[in-house]
Amino acid sequence: MNFRSGERSASSISKEMIPKPLLLVEDSRSVSNIIKTQIEDRWHCDVHVAASFEEAIVLLKSHRKEYFLAICDLNLPDAPNGEIMGLIKRTGLPTIIITGSAEKGEAHKNSYANVVDFILKSQTNSIQYLVEQVGRFYYNKFTTLMIVDDSKLSREMVAQVLTNQNFRVLGANSAEDALVVLEQNPEVKLVVSDYIMPKMNGVQLTTELRKSLDKSKLAIIGLSSDNEPRLGLEFIRNGANDFLTKPFIAEELILRINQNLDTMKYIEVIENTANRDYLTKLNNRRFFYYEGEQIRKNALRTKTPFVLALLDIDHFKQINDTYGHDIGDKVLIEFSSLITKHFSEALSARIGGEEFIVAFTQPIEDVIPMLDAFREDLASQSYEFDGQTLSVTVSIGCNGAPDKTMDGALKVADEYLYQAKNQGRNRVIYQDG
Length: 433
Known about the structure:
This protein is α/β, with parallel strands linked by helices.
């Protein structure tokens, strides 16, 4: 048996931790050690190993309700013909099969509804693929998909395939219904839509969805039948990410879905890199100017509140000079964490050095107590870094009058920040318009 890492791969999932254990049933100690080590290193979850059918029974009796997944070899010393799958079936535990035979793997996958996937031990990259599939399966439960098809049977068949992969699946029996479901469930990440539906077809639905949601926010996979070969082109031209021709193999649909979700994750990572401050992980100046401008313009148009607050850490240069830049960086990180805690509903950013900004859409009489609470919380805390203890305060300038330009609004807030510094620091100075 050659259990290697190489050819079959899955894209890395951007999560880091799985809080539940899984069951690994494998009689080869060397193979189980490799799998256990790599899964625990990658996902920080516990892997319970059974080397036989009897050991699997013992572990399942003790931990069945804790496990989220089983990984099973079909050939065990006391169960050489895949008997382990009958045991796992009775528990209802989702399972990934690892086997040396594609024929046996396929047969057991078709026989047991709880089989998520099977992986050939002889394939290169087998372990890497297995490790990534573990994470993918667990985190699929946080991903919502929608199936749009006027055929209840087709909808339920596709939904069952995706539910077995641990996705949360919603259904819509028409394009019009899909629009309502999506409005009620904005967390939907991917839509699988048939073409032929009454009133609005799948291509028209795609066109409608693309008016407000681009490919980085919602993936769309169109479905068309054999005798409509050009429909796939129409789907793509009108904004679909992908398409499949009916009838299709369930594994191909899963593969297409996974590829599109991975692409969306890559885009999210790129956008975060472009829009986030590398140190504090808050939004950066560039992102704030774009998003803040949209909020400011909307406030002017709708005559609703728009409040800008500039926050500057007091004596930050002294902190750097006294304790060093490493400690200064840790202060910035802790300060940013407190901003996120206090102003989770507002738009916040680090706009340079020790200067931060928060935009609120609440009346200034509500904002000022929030800023004071933040200031007091910060001042009351002592931070210990590498044996050094220090306290931090902040000066805040606040502008509650939307200006004709973002720069104008910021200039006013900056003037009040300057006053806060001059009046002794650790205070909020504001204009209420």
